[in-house]
Amino acid sequence: xxxxxxxxxxxxxxxxxxxxxxxxxxxxxxxxxxxxxxxxxxxxxxxxxxxxxxxxxxxxxxxxxxxxxxxxxxxxxxxxxxxxxxxxxxxxxxxxxxxxxxxxxxxxxxxxxxxxxxxxxxxxxxxxxxxxxxxxxxxxxxxxxxxxxxxxxxxxxxxxxxxxxxxxxxxxxxxxxxxxxxxxxxxxxxxxxxxxxxxxxxxxxxxxxxxxxxxxxxxxxxxxxxxxxxxxxxxxxxxxxxxxxxxxxxxxxxxxxxxxxxxxxxxxxxxxxxxxxxxxxxxxxxxxxxxxxxxxxxxxxxxxxxxxxxxxxxxxxxxxxxxxxxxxxxxxxxxxxxxxxxxxxxxxxxxxxxxxxxx
Amino acid sequence: xxxxxxxxxxxxxxxxxxxxxxxxxxxxxxxxxxxxxxxxxxxxxxxxxxxxxxxxxxxxxxxxxxxxxxxxxxxxxxxxxxxxxxxxxxxxxxxxxxxxxxxxxxxxxxxxxxxxxxxxxxxxxxxxxxxxxxxxxxxxxxxxxxxxxxxxxxxxxxxxxxxxxxxxxxxxxxxxxxxxxxxxxxxxxxxxxxxxxxxxxxxxxxxxxxxxxxxxxxxxxxxxxxxxxxxxxxxxxxxxxxxxxxxxxxxxxxxxxxxxxxxxxxxxxxxxxxxxxxxxxxxxxxxxxxxxxxxxxxxxxxxxxxxxxxxxxxxxxxxxxxxxxxxxxxxxxxxxxxxxxxxxxxxxxxxxxxxxxxxxxxxxxxxxxxxxxxxxxxxxxxxxxxxxxxxxxxxxxxxxxxxxxxxxxxxxx
Lengths: 359, 413
What we know:
The structure holds two protein chains of two kinds. In chain A, strand 3 (about 295-300) and strand 4 (about 300) form a beta hairpin. Chain A is mainly alpha-helical. Chain A has 14 helices and four strands. The radius of gyration of chain A is 23 Å and the shape is globular. In chain A, helix 3 runs antiparallel to helix 5 (about 85-115) and helix 7 (about 150-165) runs antiparallel to helix 8. Chain A has two domains: about 35-270, Up-down Bundle (Cytochrome Bc1 Complex, Chain C); about 280-360, no CATH class. By secondary structure, chain B is mainly α. Chain B is built from 23 helices and no strands. The longest helix of chain B is centred in the last third of the chain and has 60 residues, at about 355-410. The model of chain B is unreliable at about 15-20 (pLDDT under 50). The interface of A and B includes residues 80, 241, 243 and 258 of A.
């Protein structure tokens, strides 16, 4: 039997059981539109790739990490000092987490500015926003796991802020902390969120997101007639290009991990005073700095509460974007308003993150 | 009409009942009104601890503060004592401050033996002998604006004690009759104790009163100097007492124990320069080139060697840490090395080289291992950079290969 015959027979054997032909036909027919904004399509893939990196490095870290107050810090120190390439895995996990959130934001804004959220892609938008929320939860829960001084106090501040949410605040803070204060129960809880609950939801939601992208196809710019656009085959042409980008991101990730290894800090000491200039991770800095600027009382309202209400309102406007931003074939609609909101949000996030970092 | 009568009766009751209205203190009222020196007390008492505790001028000076008539208010028949003579001041204050029952009401933890101690002090003895130029209670605690010791503005607050003592003891004219030096404060200001107190804000650092006593102030006897220093430097004292120097320095005519090497008021940060070299304190007794001087030089060499090794380790580890390498374990271990340095410096007071050598050896072993850890981390950093360069190169080759594959595929279609 020749090699070609073995290949055909193997494919047929699997096809009979798994229906591989359907997947192959789908890949054969899937195309990617070509236009000046095609490059934005890569960002969803980059985010997915980084999530894969997180899963892989996270699983490796799990082999050594011990989620107790007494052992967490020492186990991470063991990973970075004693385990072969442990420093690289831990550093890549931390850098990748940050790049993942950065690229998720870029992906979200690229979808927003190209108005790719319009009918019939409302559910794709909503699942994407939910995924971004889950990524932020990953970041928040993972930040505490090394149990160092900075992460301990940042979690304290973060759960304090959550505790000021109207009506449900105290309950939410207790739910997050597993008690009155950040402690052993919080660490166990955050660990469970980080390695089991969040991945479960995220994998399901990623599956749904990809399915929706497949179902509705790739969005094209509204000002370009779809029938005039040329296309590229998804497989292998677009896929190989995406692979090149992934390799580029991997090189960037490796460089960051090797040149700027993620520092471990000092073991958390709940009885020590909070380190000077304590602040959350960069993706929460804009909100953190805004809350710092708001006076303790504005008229009859508590400043922090007012800030949270503002964030809530803005988040609601953002999530509901496909339902209030309209675009009609004749060019009418309020898409410009949506773009304005997007520009405002980008400017706000960039400026306030920088201010929060440097001030 | 009925209401008016009731109100009138109430007013009468308030007027008649004792303590029902705040009685004005005529001492303050009158002294505040005069223009001469007698005005002073009235202006000062607002900061006085006694007034803050509800006491009045009359509680010390007697008299009747409820009368506006000076003849009545300051009448001896009313118990008026007036201004006490300088020789009577300690006893005057002791009326209350030596009474446990009285003091318990205001400051239950306050000592009541100040007067007894004062009588044993040089100040007290001279005062009893009729020398009114010596310090009494008011010279240190002030008068009429007497503040609690913990009040930062009090002249006896730890940060101000030395200045308060220096007020008299640095005054050459005042000290001339007693033929005692006046450079103590100037010397003290160059000491590690002054530095600890004023620069580091360590209120437990010794001031004049810590060594000389406060109310029972007098210079420590030669035999008791090491005990005075040993109040804080306990382990140093224990080792010193077992050393050959104890019998020589602390005996009569020996020169004063710890003071022989460290001085008294100008206690400077000790260094190995005290053991070897031109500033060596050993050569004051031992001839240069003698066996004891040689031993001191040898011990100085050990300590300097350990210090240099620890510093070198610190530098290497700091450099590794700056490069992002994880060296916290070695840094913690290095603290043990520094502890051995402290132990070695402590052991020096036994004047037994073997006792010094042990912690020096232990410290050197730590310095070597931590330096090795730091050097390994720096080497590891270079290896990582090399690994990164190779990986990036390989990734570049793969990207290029994919690009070429794409070009070939797309050119054929």
